[in-house]
Design goal:
The chain is mainly α and 292 residues long. The chain folds into two domains: 77 residues, Orthogonal Bundle (Helix Hairpins); 213 residues, Cytochrome c oxidase, subunit III, four-helix bundle (Four Helix Bundle (Hemerythrin (Met), subunit A), Up-down Bundle), CATH 1.20.120. α2 runs antiparallel to α3 and α6 runs antiparallel to α7. It is elongated and about 70 Å long. The protein starts with a helix and ends with a helix. The N terminus is likely disordered.
Length: 292
């Protein structure tokens, strides 16, 4: 890298968007927690906090994306800045991998250690007799300590359809990437539009799956460790699919505005990396949460 690249390294001005995003996440976390706690009560205000947080987050995304796009289109970014973006996106995805590994680790610990111990395995017969004498060490746990019985979510049906939807979306985003590298903008628009439509379809099917779980299976967040891990893993994955769909939509609109080309298109690459990451997480989730 030449000295001129270092001399022209662009240092953005101080931005208010990180603190705005932090405030949004605080409202979302607080509102989501209160909404779950107040699910069966009247007069709760948790959902107001949740919707306020989502509104602030959308406002932050619009403002931050607008600033970054404006800087990029103004030619302020150098090769070194491009490297910084690549490193930043790589570390962000790595942090997301660690995030999901923590939840998969909790699922693994519950299934491999906690359930057998509670059932009297590994010389823990006294634990079983004292804590839950009638407990059966099987997975999924369909009976809670309070005696409530639920049903497990089958891997066939909506989960399998959603898996196919995301697998197809990985193919369409790959074709879009190939088309962009060849400057075939019509194909880029088509395949990106298909990918976004598939992402929205996945989210719609997941909402239908949750309604089926709550109303027909009796599977809720209060359904013991099985319900907790099921909704935490699938719910957080759904949030990531939502974010990935937003990123793809922003890039898609930029393509329509004449932005990005075969030489400079890291914005597209970053969104595609993230989308492939979301797809891989779902495949792991489908196997370990639904099938096994």
């Amino acid at each position: 890298m030449s000295n001129s690249d270092y001399q022209h390294y662009y240092v953005p001005a101080q931005s208010q968007w990180p603190i705005v995003g932090a405030v949004a996440l605080f409202f979302i976390a607080s509102g989501a927690g209160l909404t779950v706690m107040q699910h069966n009560s009247e007069g709760g205000n948790g959902h107001y906090l949740l919707f306020t947080g989502i509104a602030i987050l959308l406002f932050m995304l619009v403002g931050w994306f607008r600033n970054v796009i404006s800087e990029s289109q103004s030619g302020l970014y150098s090769k070194q800045m491009d490297q910084s973006f690549r490193q930043g996106m790589s570390w962000f995805i790595f942090s997301e991998v660690m995030f999901f590994l923590a939840f998969f680790g909790a699922l693994f610990y519950a299934r491999v250690f906690s359930v057998p111990w509670l059932g009297g395995g590994s010389n823990n017969a006294m634990t079983n007799e004292v804590l839950w004498p009638t407990f059966e060490a099987i997975w999924p746990l369909l009976t809670t300590p309070g005696g409530e019985v639920t049903q497990a979510m089958e891997w066939k049906g909506l989960p399998l359809v959603n898996t196919l939807v995301l697998l197809i979306s990985s193919v369409t985003i790959h074709f879009a990437h190939q088309a962009l590298e060849q400057d075939k903008r019509g194909q880029v628009k088509l395949f990106m539009g298909l990918t976004i439509a598939l992402g929205i379809s996945f989210l719609a099917l997941q909402v239908e799956e949750y309604m089926h779980a709550y109303h027909e299976l009796g599977l809720t967040l209060q359904s013991g460790i099985y319900g907790n891990t099921f909704f935490m893993l699938t719910g957080f994955h759904g949030m990531h699919v939502t974010l990935g769909t937003i990123l793809l939509t922003v890039v898609w609109l930029r393509i329509f505005n004449g932005h990005l080309n075969s030489k400079q298109h890291f914005a597209f690459q970053a969104a595609a990396w993230y989308w492939h990451f979301v797809d891989v997480v779902w495949l792991c989730l489908f196997v370990f949460v639904y099938v096994l």
